[in-house]
Design brief:
Helix content is 29%, strand content 22%. The protein is an alpha/beta fold. The structure holds S-adenosylmethionine.
Length: 450
């Protein structure tokens, strides 16, 4: 059952939101979607002159706001339109990830979930879609209005409650004996535009979340993927998830929500595929060795989960440096979606001048720079190399090794991690064979965890 939209948050704001859900309000939002920012002023002025809307500029502005949010949300949230708030859209879990959260609760036999800090309801709606009874709680009345309105439109059983979830009178804080009920928490991790790195500064804070999991066995949470491993409590299963190469979250699963014996899981979502690595069989410490025919850049979820050793063992690989997450191997790596694969074509002299001379001498017209563990800003280096010719684009990997920094000329190999469209191939100086999976272009530093 869906509660009516809460009245708090200012009577005028509440009345404006209510007006959006009337037939006329909905028709206006639909008419303004997709929102054309370039024509915003003219569009708003025209609507405000229309009979019926001239007296309600606040509702016109709110409808324009919804149209703008729906337009921004369209690619990430396909399917029936939803109601949003600015913060709610920014913080919303991607639907394919929210479905996976919901599936954990469903598989554990949990029938009722309190989504504590539900925002605009991406997780709450996915839980309801999975057949669970959902109580969506937030202290932001506009967010609660959005989740209630979308749930009503989709005919989903989401009850809403305007409250501070840390309040002592709630069952999850006072009476932990509701066996069939679970909790999901996705703490707010921003203050204005700034990201809050310290978990205790999140809202609700880390210590409250850990205490909740001690009271309610079926607790799940979404946290920043950069969470310090040392903070993770005993017994929790942690799942790092990437979507199309973007590391999006670490999910914490306690009690019956854990799946299997692993403590750490890397989940890689690409297209319609899902691939997982875990530490159930241990994490071997990868050996360190020289440059080889292939170079593998593990997916960010694999790196953050501390599972580079598992991946390296799978592909018979070694690290070039114990602290850098590039894996080298002479065996053509069967990587699936777990990383990007490159054929190593040549070694390039390190340093701007020799690098420029080498690249020019070999006929390259531009360069894509990828780097780990070296103090280089890829775009600055590219500009400083001043290639600017018609020749093909070289892909350079710069990395630290025990023997000093190294520059490798590589060729991305197409596969689940899409190749860089700007990188043109050229005849390899020493071609290590060809393959059909792997390849990619994530840039920046990452270190393997033991
Ligand atoms: C990251 S968002 C949740 C997003 C949601 N999981 C989704 O996918 O749509 C966090 C929400 O927690 C709410 N929140 C933060 N602290 C709270 C508290 N103490 N009590 C209630 N809600 C809180 C914020 O208002 C915000 O809407």
């Amino acid at each position: 059952m869906v509660d009516p939209a809460p009245a708090a948050g200012g009577a005028a704001a509440s009345a404006t939101r209510a007006a959006l859900l009337t037939r006329e309000g909905r028709a206006l939002v639909e008419r303004l979607t997709p929102w054309d920012e370039a024509r915003a002023l003219a569009t708003l002025a025209a609507v405000r002159r229309e009979p019926g809307w001239a007296e309600h500029p606040d509702v016109v502005a709110a409808a324009a706001g919804q149209a703008r949010l729906r337009t921004r949300a369209a690619a990430r949230f396909p399917g029936p339109p939803r109601w949003w708030t600015e913060d709610g859209l920014q913080q919303a879990t991607r639907p394919e990830v929210a479905q996976r959260h919901a599936a954990r609760f469903a598989a554990a036999g949990v029938s009722e979930v309190a989504d504590l800090g539900c925002g605009a309801g991406s997780d709450a709606l996915a839980l309801a879609q999975a057949g669970l009874a959902v109580l969506a709680v937030d202290r932001d009345p506009a967010a609660l209005w959005a989740v209630a309105a979308t749930a009503a439109d989709l005919d989903l059983p989401v009850a809403t409650r305007l409250a501070d979830v840390t309040g002592p009178s709630h069952w999850w804080n006072a009476d932990p004996s509701r066996d069939a009920a679970g909790c999901f928490v996705d703490p707010g991790r921003r203050a204005g535009r700034a990201r809050l790195a310290a978990p205790e500064a999140w809202s609700p804070p880390w210590s409250w979340l850990v205490g909740l999991a001690e009271r309610v066995p079926a607790t799940g949470a979404k946290v920043a993927p950069g969470i310090d491993h040392a903070l993770l409590p005993d017994g929790v299963q942690v799942e790092w998830t990437s979507v199309a190469g973007d590391l999006v979250e670490a999910a914490l699963w306690w009690g019956p929500l854990r799946a299997g014996p692993a403590r750490r899981i890397a989940t890689v979502l690409r297209g319609s595929g899902t691939a997982q690595l875990d530490d159930a069989a241990g994490v071997p410490r990868p050996p360190v060795g020289p440059v080889a025919a292939w170079l593998v850049e593990p997916d960010a979820a694999v790196i953050r989960a501390g599972l580079v050793g598992v991946l390296a063992a799978r592909i018979n690989g070694h690290l070039l440096d114990p602290r850098i997450a590039y894996v080298a191997t002479d065996t053509r790596p069967q990587l699936g979606a777990f990383g990007a694969r490159y054929a190593v074509l040549d070694m390039v002299p390190f340093g701007r001048k020799p690098m420029r001379a080498w690249l020019r001498g070999h006929g390259y017209g531009d360069v894509v720079v990828k780097k780990r563990g070296v103090a280089v800003v890829p775009e600055q280096l590219r500009a400083a190399l001043r290639l600017g010719g018609d020749g093909p684009v070289a892909t350079l990997v710069l990395t630290r090794t025990d023997a000093g920094p190294l520059a490798l000329l590589v060729e991305p190999v197409p596969g689940p991690h899409a190749p860089d469209p700007r990188a043109a191939s050229r005849a390899p100086l020493e071609r290590p064979g060809s393959g059909s999976d792997g390849g990619g272009r994530a840039q920046g530093d990452a270190r393997p965890r033991p």
